[in-house]
Amino acid sequence: MNKLLSAGLAGLLTLTLALPAAAHTGHADGTGFLAGFLHPLGGLDHLLAMVAVGLWAAQTGGRALWMLPVAFVTMLTAGALIGMGGFELPMVEAGIAASVAVLGLLVVLNKRVSVYAGMALVGVFAVFHGHAHGAEMPAAAAPVLFGAGFILSTVLLHGAGIATMLIGRGVAKRLARPTAA
């Protein structure tokens, strides 16, 4: 099961790397909670990176299960505030593309690092994602509603990654059990 999951993630990673990062500014539609909620779902790069954080957190286990997503959401919010403030951040698209590649590889390779190193890594990537969300926020948007929307969406994507990994492990354990003849 882990090989199947790894192969699928590797395929999605390859596809994503072949495409330009979808974090281009100025294309957001809508101004409220729903627009913010849907924003992370509109780009494959955002979607994959946020799910990968959940997958990696579950793979790592222990405190990482909640600390990696919390670090991501915290720094996502900081990055969004930077973007909303009109401050430029260099290489946002490159940072987002790198997040997909690096996080995908960490999951595929089942790489473990200390919880704090993992938090720092996902935090750096989250700033890029947050900046893109904040900079893409429509001028007429209600910042709190739009922000709450993309934060909730991010949390749910992390949860989807965590659930996928935990369910996949459970299925793999059941398939590995010897059956009674």
UniProtKB/TrEMBL annotation:
Q: Which Pfam families match?
A: HupE_UreJ
Signal peptide residues are 1-23
Which sequence ranges are marked TM in the entry? 38-58, 65-85, 91-108, 115-132, 144-167
Q: Which superkingdom is the protein from? A: Bacteria
Q: Is the keyword Membrane in the record?
A: yes
Listed A to Z, the keywords are: Membrane, Signal, Transmembrane, Transmembrane helix
Name by which UniProt lists this protein:
Urease accessory protein
Question: Which species?
Answer: Azospirillum picis
The upper taxonomy is:
Bacteria, Pseudomonadati, Pseudomonadota, Alphaproteobacteria, Rhodospirillales
